[in-house]
Recover the amino acids of this structure.
């Protein structure tokens, strides 16, 4: 399979096989067809090679496809598409939602890049909290 060919969609079981970590990252989520330049806002993002969970002040629709832009360490701008799986309303503060989404139409090389960064986050976390 060529390196820029999108990988098949991970099944729900596969998505849980990816290591997950919660890290602060600048992120911008917009509807797939929104051509405007969005603003990156740092948020606590639960991320894996299969998708993300993030708290937002904007509600999106389930099954909606979003453009997801992340600013990874070393100023690496990462862009992917995200399918909204679930949106939970958070009671306080008002107009707050927890979005759960999975990456779709992602090339294997992009998923590998993301996983490399996630492993780097894990190493940094372990070094910070568990090294002597």
């Amino acid at each position: 399979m060529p390196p820029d060919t999108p990988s098949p969609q991970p099944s729900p079981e596969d998505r849980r096989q990816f290591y997950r970590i919660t890290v602060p990252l600048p992120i911008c989520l917009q509807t797939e067809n929104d051509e405007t330049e969005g603003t990156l806002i740092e948020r606590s993002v639960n991320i894996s090679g299969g998708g993300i969970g993030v708290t937002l002040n904007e509600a999106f629709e389930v099954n909606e496809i979003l453009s997801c832009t992340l600013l990874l360490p070393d100023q690496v701008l990462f862009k992917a598409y995200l399918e909204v799986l679930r949106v939970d309303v958070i009671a306080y503060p008002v107009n707050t939602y927890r979005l759960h989404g999975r990456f779709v139409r992602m090339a294997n090389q992009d998923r590998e890049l993301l996983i490399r960064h996630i492993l780097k986050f894990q190493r940094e976390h372990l070094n910070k909290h568990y090294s002597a």
In short: The radius of gyration is 15 Å. Residues 108-130 form the longest helix (23 residues). The chain has a mean pLDDT of 88.
